[in-house]
Structures are given as structure tokens and as C-alpha cells.
Amino acid sequence: MEKQPDKILVEEPIAGYGPYSYEDYLSWKVDEMVELIRGKVFKMAAAPRLIHQRISGKIFHLLYQFLQGKFCEVFAAPFDVRLPITSKDHKKIDTVVQPDLCVVCDSEKLDELGCVGAPDLIVEILSPGNNRKELQLKYEVYEASGVKEYWIIHPDELTLLIYSLDEGKYRPSRLFTSGDRVSSQALPGFKLNLDDVFGELS
Question: Which residue among 95, 112, 150, 192 has its CA within the 20 to 30 Å range from the CA of 173?
Fold first, then answer.
């Protein structure tokens, strides 16, 4: 089917249109941020709520401090992460996401457009309306692309769930909350006291 005009964007993927590629994504002139997941277009949620931004800012600050003098870098959205499975050709990449936070330890994956390939760590903070995308669709592409560690934060419940890649499959942690200290397998030595993140929000 012939591709439709750029402006047709909805909360769910555009039924029957596409599949789209990263080359298409670069050509669009849209007023809202979008993500491309397995060739389908998803409109990003409305501007993040205050609690979302506070959590994101705190974790970014702690990661940035920890990574000083190390090879890894932390990036906050908006920041394009392209997840090719077989090729870096723009026409063959069908997934472009904007994680809330990501850490990239291989500088060869970075270019002027963002990151091409799997970050070592991805942090997603749930927003109203995007839970299915984060919990199902992104889980699947992050696992398939080799993202070593995937953190999902529920800001209303003040919880953190960590998925760690083990022989190509994600293994879930228990559910963490205030009072817990968590460590990262993807970033050895990094420890996060969730009181530092959730303490003033509860």
C-alpha cells in the first residue's frame, strides 16, 4: 500500500499504513515527537508530568556523576536510538525510540543523529497512555536488540522493575521501592538508593 501523508498520527499505530523506515522518519515534518517500532508509527505521550520529570532528573544526575571519567555516557530524551537487527542502512532500520534515559558505553554506536545499536542501559518512566508501548512493544525490541538492562519506573506507585539480559532473554528482578538499594549489572559499581529518587515524592 502506498505510504500516506506525514501528518496522520494517532495513539495506536497507523493501521494498514507503512511499514516505515528510519529514512522515512528523517523526512517527516511533524509537530509532535513520534517513535517508530517495527515499522509502525507511535505518537509520543503528551508533555511529561512533573513527577516524571523529577524522577528523570534525579536519575540522570546520579548516573552523570557516576560516569564521570568513564567510557559510558548518559543521554536524556529527546535522543534517537535506532535499533537495527541486521543492518545500519537507514532504509532497513524500522525501529527508532526515544527512551527517557539511556547509557551508551560503546562510542562507536554514537553519531550526529544519536545512537545506532543497543544502549547498555535504558530507563523508561511510565506515563499515562504509554504503558502498553513500554511494557510490551519496547520490552520485545529491547530484548531482541540486546539492551543489557531495561529499567521500568512506575511514578504513581514509586516502583522500579529491572530486566537483565541473560542468554538473550530478559530476567526480571523483584519489584523495588523506597528503602531499597539497587545495583546495575550493566554498569558495575553503580548503586542507586531509591530513597534518593522517591523519598520526597511519596
Answer: 95
Q: Whose CA is closest to 163, among 154, 175, 155?
A: 175
In a domain, 166, yes or no: yes
Distance CA 162, CA 30 (A): 33
Angle at the Cα of 153 (from 151 to 157), degrees rounded to 5? 150
> Residues 6 or more apart from 187 whose CB is under 8 A from it?
63, 66, 67, 72, 103, 120, 121, 149
Neighbours of 56 (CB within 10 A): 21
Supply the pLDDT for residue 1.
Answer: 40
Give the range with max mean pLDDT: 36-45, 82-91, 145-154.
145-154
Position 58 in a domain:
yes
Question: What CATH number is attached to the domain comprising 85?
Answer: 3.90.1570.10
Measuring CA to CA, how many Å separate 201 from each of 51, 54, 94, 155? 8, 9, 37, 9
Sign, CA dihedral 80-27-111-167, equals positive
